[in-house]
Fold this protein.
Amino acid sequence: MVELIRAFLLIFIAEMGDKTQIIAMTFATQYKVKEVLTGVFLGVFLNHGLAIILGRYISKLIPINYIQIMAGLMFVIFGIMSLRDEDVEDEEHKRNFGPVFTVALAFFIGELGDKTQLTAMTLAAEGNYPFLILIGTTLGMIGTSGIGILIGSKIGEKIP
C-alpha cells in the first residue's frame, strides 16, 4: 500500500500544471468529461503499464543505480527534445478518430519519455508491487488531469 501512495503522490505533484493537465483541460472544452477521463485513463494506463513492465525487466538485468542514472539522463534528453518539438496537433487529424481514442492516443504519446513515465519505470525497478505502482501512477495522473478537465469543461460551457 505504501508503494501505491508513494506512486500517487509523486505523479500527482509532478503533473500539477504540466502540459498533460493543460491538454486535458483543452480536450474538456471540446468533448464530454466522461470521454476525456476515459481517454486519459486508457492512455496513461497503457503508457505506465509499459513503463512498469520495462522497469521490472530492466531491473533484473541492470543494477538500480545505473537505472536511476539512465532515467535522469533520459529525463534531461526528452526535456530538451520537448522544448524543440512543440508540435500542435492538426485539427483535421483529431476529427478522424473518436474522442476517447483521440485523448488516449494524445496521452499515450504525450507521456512517452515524460518524467511520469520515467518515474513509473524507476518505481517499478525499485519496488516489489508493480500493480500497486501502476494503480498509484494512473490515479495520480487521473487526479491532476481531472482538475484540468473540470476547469476545461467550465470554460467550454462559457465559450459559444
